[in-house]
Amino acid sequence: MLRPIALLFVIGLLVPPAQARDEWYDYYENALAALQRGDHGAAVTLIEAALERKKRSGYLRTYGNNYIRYVPHFQLGVALHGAGDCAAALASFEESVAREETAELPNLDTRLQRLSAECDERLAPPPVEVAARAEPKPEPIDPPAPQRPPIDRALLEAGLSAYLAGDFPGSTAAFEDLTRRAPDSARLRLLLGMSLHSAWVTGGETDDDLIRRARTELAAASNLDPGLLPDPALCPPPVAALFRSLR
Amino acid sequence: MRRPTYRASAAALLLALTIAVPAVEAASDEEIFRDFPFNFTNPGARALGVGGAFISLADDSTAAQANPAGLVMLRRPEFFAEFNSQSYDTSEVQVTATIASPFFQGDLTASAASMPRTGVNPTFLSYVLPFKKVSLGFSRFETLNVQTRTTNSFSIVGIEAIVAIDPTSGDATIIGTQPVDFLLASEADLDARVTQYNFAAAFELGSKFSLGLTGVLGTADLDGGADNLFRDSSGGGNFPVLTLDYATRIDDTDTDFVYNVGLLWRPAGWMNIGAVYRKGLRFVLQETVLDEGVRAAEARDLYGRTFDNVLHIPDSYGVGLSFRPADPWTILIDVVRVEYSDLMDGFLSGLNRITFPETRLDFTVDDGTEMHVGVEKIFLSGTTPVALRLGAWSDPDHRIRAERATNEFVPVFPEGERVTHYTAGFGLTLKQSIQLDFAADVSDVDTTAVFSTIFRF
Q1: Which of A50, B69, B116, B427 could disulfide-pair with B212, CB 3.0 to 4.6 Å?
Q2: How far apart are CA B199 and CA B216, in angstroms?
Q3: Domains and CATH numbers, chain A
Q4: Residues of B in contact with A17 (CB under 8 A)
Q5: What is the pLDDT of residues B84-126, one digit of tens each?
Q6: Contact B75/A9, CB-based, under 8 Å?
Q7: ipTM, interface predicted TM-score of the complex
Q8: How many CB atoms lie within 10 A of CB A196?
Q9: What SS3 class is residue B393?
Q10: In A, what residues contact B, Cβ < 8 A?
Q11: What is the chain A residue with the closest CA to B131?
């Protein structure tokens, strides 16, 4: 009687667990554990794996009558922020807001706003005063310029997401649209130049029009804000070098 | 000249008794084994709420019993406790028939009463510890816990004919009458407990299959006895007061070790298919025939001073299907085959008040198929999941009955009938750590209320 039990027990122990514990909530809870111990890189990977298996956010059933709060885009944003990738973190936070992941969770929402603001600050160009100290400019004589329309935040995030995903035609289209609306934004022109340059590189460096337009946009950015520094997290070294050479 | 036996008149009495004699469930046809309410339904109020259909779901720590393969679903250690209150229809029946025939005029009276004592018992306790490669579970399951007192009496009071029979023609002639006052009675008590200790382990076999094994150490503890009495003051009989005819006592324990095997297949995220085989425990318990009683010597000659009583819990196997047509809904179906014929393993006849001393009576019981269906819907009240459950299951006839072809006591030990149970329940999960579930099972035979709770660490 004991023989079949012993045999099955041994089989069970010998068989590898394969994808044991590979439900979406396994990845998600492991990601939260990784976040707690500060392993942001691992957390990003695990949350992305969870998102591959479960796209819908919310208070979701796991097994039995158990539910967990599943806010993957918010947590992905936290992990990316912790990993220093602010542009991607902003995109995740934007997605989180769009999905109303934190709408009814004041603590998470406050944290999202705080981390978003931190990322905005990191991605923003250095204060004009710093640039002014570096290269003093005469006081403006003309009357104050008309107020610029606010930047379309969603379109900016979409452009950044496309850029980070390697969709350079998509990111170029988004940044072009944004630049048309805010032609004086050095940062947007820098992003457009980076996007065009990346499109030129991925296209085999054969499209002269792309590199010409990239140079134009980078030069314009430099002219608009000589103190502008490219974000090393977003800007490939060749583009940074080109940007510096155009100053 | 000879007096007619009581059998002729008793046939009508026995027919009348059909409704009064409860089912024989196991071991022998003795009074003390009449009502063994084995707890075969999957443990837990959640399982009961969905009609006991839990083979394919088995996603909490009751899986050690329902389908050990389901233990792989658990992610956190769990402690589970079930409290069960079962109340049976106390059968207390009296039937009187007035007979006016040329051979007998008077009353036949039969009465039977079965009085199980019920209470709230912790019927299932379990602890499950999931690891990365294997989930381990330990549980204690009360398969049977009953204390019952059963009494029966059969009386014949009236005037019977004294008959003379012509030795050549065989014709019967009434030559006189005499008073009849005859009583058969039995008083039986039983305190019976069968407890299982389950040691379960479950393994993942790939991403869609899991295998579970449960080693079951069972103990049976029976304490009881039956006094079989009679009074015969017919025609100035020798036993004008209630006299002990023969008596038996049982006070023994036994252990057995068996196993359960379960499989779980998750072909899609919204569907589970499960299968389980449960080997039944088999106990051998010694019973004693007491020295006291008018026919104690005859009883000892037939069965010995002590004899073995076999209590074989039926093997069973089943398959289950569960699916979620939409996320909050789960629909469950189980089909379980129960080999009730195992109850006939070592079955003894002729010990019952009525059948004694007919040891060669044939009894039988058929294997049966249980059908379980249920549905669960979960609502979210804020962040508290609230589950509502409905179900039904049909319990096949598993009453040990007298074999019709060879047994003159067929009316006394008739076949039973399929019983449909309706179940309902609800549950809530608090702070993702405490689950509380309630369920009730109602049928024509009994009513069961179950409360269970899970603590996740």
Answers
A1: B69
A2: 6
A3: 20-123 (1.25.40.10), 153-245 (1.25.40)
A4: 132-133, 203-204
A5: 886 665 566 677 778 787 778 888 887 777 776 666 678 899 9
A6: no
A7: 0.71
A8: 27
A9: strand
A10: 1-2, 4-5, 8-9, 11-13, 15, 17-22, 25-26, 29, 59, 61-69
A11: A21
